[in-house]
Amino acid sequence: MPFGSFEFKKFADSWNFRIVTSSPRYPRSNGLSEKAVGIAKQMLKKKFEENKDINISLLEYRSTVIPTMGASPSELLMSRLLRTKLPAHHLKLKPKLQENVEDKLKSNQYQYKSYHDRRNSLHLRPSNNEPLCVNRNAIEHASQESSDNASDPDVSLNTSLPPITTRSGRTVKKPSKYNDYVL
Hints:
By secondary structure, the protein is mostly helical. The chain has six helices and four strands, in the order αααααβαβββ. The strands form two sheets. A two-stranded antiparallel sheet has the order 1-4. It is elongated.
């Protein structure tokens, strides 16, 4: 039964969960699951070559600490360490509730977002000492304010920029949403 079928949607409604799909032709949009699949393939390939049990690899994977979280997947899921082949004190194996997991996840997401934004943001600076606008609503709001202040000689917008012509003769125009900025 495909995930887009009526029966599956009905099943999801009856069990009260949401169906979230990603593009099969664009795997970067679902990086976490792609990474998990890669790790599983690597473990299967290694254990198949060595003719060993896959369960030991899964046990090691589940008991390895995630550096950014400070706990292993088993600790996050079951609030306790798993008994591995390494000796551990019996008090370490007792359940211990993990605290501030959501806060750690949110801080990690914020950190990753800041890294992404640092690499992938346009470096725009406002023209004519105008405030930097980050979304379309703010741009519309700023353009309305600037039209209100059109009588002020200190505030002026330079929206008529000449198009740029490349060496091949192609004319390139700046997108209209960046008219208020100097690149």
